[in-house]
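Methods: example folding runs. The two proteins below were folded one after another, and each record is reproduced exactly as written to the output file, sequence line first and structure-token line second.
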Amino acid sequence: MKSQQEKEDYSFWTKYKQFAKNEIMLYVVMVIGIILGIILFS
């Protein structure tokens, strides 16, 4: 039972890490775009 649960947690965390990486990249690109926009327009 415990090994099954660990296996599920492992697959969940690998999927979550992949998702989190994409989210972080998206936010980084957005923040850089906003900062560049402020610098250009100010």
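Second run, written to the same file directly after the first:
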Amino acid sequence: MNETYPQLPPMQTGIRGRCPRCGQGHLFKGFLTLAPKCEACGLDYSFADPADGPAFFVICFACVPSVLLAVWLEVAFSASLLTQVLVTGPFMLLTCIPPLRPLKGWLVASQYFYKAEEGKVVRRQAGT
């Protein structure tokens, strides 16, 4: 394939779940499962390894408000366990699950855009 593709920003493609190279094909084949390749341009997604990155960001930024809500309910109202489950449970699900897919898409698109790959140890030869 000799086609050249424009540099697409990771925020533009990743958040929408689109191919980081062409911006047309789908990045996911399920909720969080990456497709094997782009159906539009054929880019192989085997380079992508976001690992636990999306979960880390969700834990750092979305779970904190859930915990603060639970603590506030307990301190201000001495909320029962049932109240905690019925109020903080849905709040936690709504703040933790929806951001996972856009964050994973953004991380995969960023890996492609910045040509990120696993680090390698480079050893100098003796005498150089």
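Comment on the second run: The chain has a mean pLDDT of 92.
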